[in-house]
Write a structure and sequence with these properties.
With 123 residues, the chain is of the alpha/beta class. The protein has three helices and eight strands; from the N terminus they run E-E-E-E-E-H-E-H-E-H-E. The chain is 21% helix and 26% strand. The strands form two sheets. Strands 5-4-8-6-7 form a five-stranded mixed β-sheet, sandwiched between helices. Strands 1-2-3 form a three-stranded antiparallel β-sheet, with helices on one face. A hairpin with a 4-residue loop joins strand 4 and strand 5. The longest helix has 13 residues.
């Protein structure tokens, strides 16, 4: 699937390829994305997700308004300890399936929102 590129600064998810996401000239099966960069990500099972797994996103300055968490082919609730830990940092967690998270990324970045994304592969 190809998504329409909108006016936004930084990396834009332009489509899907196999189990992954097309960002500029690269495809990432697991993806950590910020307004500044996109990186490959090998996420743990969702039940084991912790702050340490998204450390590069937490280092963003200023910190993101919230985290778009793409949980794979379907919505899976992240561990409560994970959402609480981010909440204590003032970062909300918006969990959704990874395709929806990729589309939301484009909309939010077109609005120049300062968000971060952690997207599990499309299974």
């Amino acid at each position: 699937m190809k998504m329409e590129r909108r006016s936004a600064e930084g990396p834009v998810i332009s489509g899907f390829s196999g189990r992954g996401f097309r960002v500029d000239e690269n495809v990432y099966e697991g993806l950590l994305i910020t307004p500044e960069r996109a990186d490959s990500w090998s996420p743990p099972p969702i039940t084991e997700l912790s702050e340490a797994d998204i450390a590069p996103l937490l280092a963003l300055n200023p910190q993101p308004e919230f985290l778009l968490l793409g949980t794979g082919a379907t919505l899976v609730r992240p561990p409560l300890a994970f959402t609480r830990a981010l909440g204590e940092r003032g970062i909300g967690v918006e969990a959704m399936d990874s395709r929806a998270a990729a589309r939301a990324w484009g909309v939010l970045r077109a609005e120049l929102r300062w968000v971060a994304g952690a997207l599990y592969p499309l299974d």
